[in-house]
């Protein structure tokens, strides 16, 4: 059951550009409450995976939850449009069984057999194209892997063991405090250290890959954070592919997210309102009052705030957020990734991939085959040369065609930079951010708890990290309410 | 707070052999119910990780749970004794962040920083000893890894890609049906196929390693199941070490298990009785009546049975279990591993490891340093040459000393084979078991649901698999009760 969200864009030759795409993640009706008088146990702001997990865990444990979401759909920065029965992933896409929080849910919802692999090298041109200074070289994917591996190993080899000594526990990243100084480096700083050792192809491939990860610029992105990704991926390029860009849901992310929603709804403990952006959060010490932009007020004993880092400061908190949280939100993260799906009639491109580190879409690959037999290409750009496809479709198609000759029938995308509820894609920080602000961002603020993949401990930036944080937020609120109620019961005696 | 379980053995030079060791996993009081009249929502039989997870999830969701456990402690086949403040792991030990279910819990209980590494090659003799036909060769651990890797790659390379083609999804193991025929092979069958390619050292190392995994015999253990372990471990020997035998809880397994227990208890929805072996389970279609060996009867709407495969047939079910379940339980699994801890005064042995595939303890390694500065050695035997340490301590110490010269001050162990509530260690099957019986073992039987790592989908045999199964069992029961209550409500209308 798909219906149109106001989010996302679709362009076709016949119909041109349209705002809004169909998704199974749009919830109908858009609200199930008629009054705002009730004082809920918890108000959860947001409907991405952190919020969905928190809502699911809280409602299952018997708490009365009110969920408020600015958009018309669930999923936050991970959702799939569904066009002609085919899911295009508008944001977060890939998952792996080594990502503990997301896989626990995939297992629990019995979706282990719902995965498919983005890459298909079984037919077609089976080719990787790398563009160095205007000249494109074509090679096979084994050669691609060899260049990538060689370049990445040079990039991360800060300890003679490819990061294993400096960051031995990816889920306890400063276990070895020797990791800390690496957060003083940007990617550009690190590249300067190893520049002499890289071939021109290696440099371009490396640049393409790390900008794919960060959606930022080499001059600003934290080298430490990339090292953390690398550690999470098992300290190998093969691991990076396995974890970052290989396995996706056959039915799209929204087919996964809807399970959390349905379970929460089935408890009869979930009240909700979509299309409800909030403006202020007031905590009087006993309860939290949340005001929406149309002036409605909602009350709850506790709040779980899953508002992304880059928009946290658009909400006024009373009492104000800590200086640390305010500073962190002002600085924000750097990921202004552009992700564009192209449906192309060139079937041979199913097994194609490319890096052109000077293109506005610097990393592209065959990602699927649509029901009509066309090839689905996905392409990523970073903030080095920012592209907003809806503002110039002709330029966008030209950027794609400059990568390889293709006949584009459809484009699908979400402009995360121009999205006022995200102001960017997945979290990727500048230097001296994570090691300075993460703990502060995780801290509660009176009756308000914070949960977002943007400050997760493990797979920060990932769906896994969002579920990690939603789990933590729900548990903290459950414990807190249980304690305060025990105290209240005691004072009655 | 430790107290003595009746489980486990400790031997010291001064005190000789004693049955029962201290653990933080013994729950006091041993029961919190005074009558058996109540009809619970769920009765959970067992207190290992499957049962603890199910009890935690069910109680948190508001169900009234009765947990019945035959032993005096939680943890089932994973528990730690605590002797002089030092945890000796009596069963399941190692965990990893790539094991999704267990890591989700480690993250949720904020225990990410509670891990330590078994191996410590920073001082001492730093040596691996391999015994081939009575002659011991000593080498460094890099040489050990090289032999192991070479041998294992030959063993699993059934597709030119070290198993990746035949079993591409470790959590969907027959995704490629071409995996199925490999369950017709025992390890010995597979060894016969590659025997000509192995050096004598490679053969011994390989034999030691696969018997370490199975606790069985080469002639009987399933090659397919080993392949599944290999796939779970990322298709590399390095992955095997990372996942199988590296990271353990500084405070012991029981320090982890107690969190599940405490959370369940905190809901006020958990009733329980330890020291309560059960004899019969009768399902009248509306409720389940469980009878204990002292004649008490307990009633619940549903049951989650976590009784291990090898003892499932010691309980009488009415109506009887399906033929498939009965057959599976009669066949059972093959793991009769002997695990012995030795506290030795030889500090140099902290960095020692050994394989002697003809020894009754065929795989041994330095596993820690005790508070008194002694080295803690752990050694494993398999059913090829079965050892029951408590029956002949002198012989056991001699087996250890034959591996390397050591001065033994203490032995600590649990005889899993002689344990009537386990009849074996972690699950490891013979050929044509998993591919024939697993789904059947997961199936519900009327109002009785089954949850055990012995038939998990993913990390079967592991703590992770137990948590996977406890999660599934709880969710299935919650859904089932919710459905039947909705139906009941409807019929009232």
Automatic annotation (TrEMBL), chains A, B:
<keyword id="KW-0560">Oxidoreductase</keyword>
<dbReference type="GO" id="GO:0097621">
    <property type="term" value="F:monoamine oxidase activity"/>
</dbReference>
<keyword id="KW-0274">FAD</keyword>
<dbReference type="InterPro" id="IPR002937">
    <property type="entry name" value="Amino_oxidase"/>
</dbReference>
<keyword id="KW-0285">Flavoprotein</keyword>
<dbReference type="InterPro" id="IPR001613">
    <property type="entry name" value="Flavin_amine_oxidase"/>
</dbReference>
<protein>
    <recommendedName>
        <fullName>Amine oxidase</fullName>
        <ecNumber>1.4.3.-</ecNumber>
    </recommendedName>
</protein>
<comment type="similarity">
    <text>Belongs to the flavin monoamine oxidase family.</text>
</comment>
<dbReference type="InterPro" id="IPR036188">
    <property type="entry name" value="FAD/NAD-bd_sf"/>
</dbReference>
<feature type="binding site">
    <location>
        <begin position="69"/>
        <end position="70"/>
    </location>
    <ligand>
        <name>FAD</name>
    </ligand>
</feature>
<feature type="binding site">
    <location>
        <position position="380"/>
    </location>
    <ligand>
        <name>substrate</name>
    </ligand>
</feature>
<dbReference type="InterPro" id="IPR050703">
    <property type="entry name" value="Flavin_MAO"/>
</dbReference>
<dbReference type="Pfam" id="PF01593">
    <property type="entry name" value="Amino_oxidase"/>
</dbReference>
<feature type="domain" description="Amine oxidase">
    <location>
        <begin position="52"/>
        <end position="477"/>
    </location>
</feature>
């Amino acid at each position: 059951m798909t219906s149109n969200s106001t989010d996302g864009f679709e362009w076709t030759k016949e119909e041109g550009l349209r705002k809004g795409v169909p998704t199974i993640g749009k919830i109908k009706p858009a609200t199930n409450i008629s009054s705002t008088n009730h004082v809920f146990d918890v108000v959860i702001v947001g409907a991405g995976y952190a919020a969905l997990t928190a809502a699911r865990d809280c409602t299952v444990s018997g708490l009365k939850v009110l969920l408020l979401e600015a958009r018309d759909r669930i999923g936050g920065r991970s959702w799939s449009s569904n066009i002609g029965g085919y899911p295009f992933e508008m944001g977060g896409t890939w998952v792996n069984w080594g990502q503990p929080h997301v896989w626990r849910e995939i297992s629990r919802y019995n979706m282990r057999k719902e995965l498919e692999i983005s890459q298909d090298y079984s037919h077609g041109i089976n080719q990787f194209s790398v563009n160095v200074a205007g000249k494109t070289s074509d090679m096979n994917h084994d050669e691609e892997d060899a260049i990538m591996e060689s370049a990445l190993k040079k990039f991360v080899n800060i300890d003679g063991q490819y990061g294993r000594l400096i960051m031995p526990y990816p889920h306890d990243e400063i276990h070895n405090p020797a990791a800390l100084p690496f957060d003083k480096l940007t990617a550009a700083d690190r590249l300067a250290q190893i520049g002499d050792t890289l071939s021109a192809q290696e440099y371009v491939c490396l640049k393409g890959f790390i900008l794919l990860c960060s959606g930022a610029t080499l001059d600003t992105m934290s080298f430490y954070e990339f090292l953390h990704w690398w550690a999470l991926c098992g300290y190998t390029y093969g691991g990076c592919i396995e974890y970052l860009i290989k396995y996706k849901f056959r039915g799209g992310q929204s087919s996964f997210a809807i399970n959390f929603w349905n379970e929460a709804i089935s408890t009869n403990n979930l009240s909700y309102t979509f299309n409800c952006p909030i403006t202020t959060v007031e905590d009087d010490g006993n309860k939290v009052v949340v005001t929406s932009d149309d002036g409605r007020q909602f009350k709850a004993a506790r709040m779980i705030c899953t508002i992304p880092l880059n928009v946290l400061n658009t909400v006024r908190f009373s009492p104000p957020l800590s200086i640390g949280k305010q500073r962190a939100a002002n600085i924000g993260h750097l990921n202004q990734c552009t992700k564009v799906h192209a449906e192309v009639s060139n079937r041979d491109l199913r097994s194609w991939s490319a890096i052109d580190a000077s293109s506005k879409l610097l990393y592209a690959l065959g990602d699927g085959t649509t029901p009509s037999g066309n090839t689905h290409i996905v392409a990523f750009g970073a903030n080095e040369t920012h592209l907003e496809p809806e503002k110039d479709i002709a330029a966008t198609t030209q950027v794609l065609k400059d990568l390889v000759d293709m006949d584009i029938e459809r484009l699908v995308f979400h402009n995360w930079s121009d999205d006022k509820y995200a102001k960017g894609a997945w979290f990727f920080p500048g230097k001296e951010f994570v090691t300075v602000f993460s703990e502060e961002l995780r801290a509660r603020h009176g009756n308000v708890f914070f949960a977002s993949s943007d400050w997760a401990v493990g797979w920060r930036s990932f769906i896994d990290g969002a579920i990690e944080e939603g789990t933590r937020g729900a548990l903290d609120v459950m414990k807190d309410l249980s304690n305060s109620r025990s105290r209240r019961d005691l004072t009655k005696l």
